[in-house]
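We now fix the convention by which a protein and its fold are recorded. Think of the row as the fold of the chain written in a discrete alphabet. Here is one such record, which you should read through line by line.
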Amino acid sequence: MNEDELEGRFTSKPFGGHVLELYERLRDEAAMFAHTVNNSMPDSREKSLALTAIEEAAMWANKGLARRVQ
């Protein structure tokens, strides 16, 4: 891995406009899915794992926006 790529993993560019709209849409869609899972399943290990996976997917999607979209 070159130094620029490594540095890029720990920095982000400020964003607004359409990128902010994408960020908010990703967050809202993940939250809706999380509510569906939460309200459809009994409390269990599987439910906890599903909610964690949704949170993780939203985090990585937003990280991708912060790093690559201008």
Summary: Residues 3-68 form one domain. The chain is about 75% helix and 0% strand. The mean pLDDT is 89.
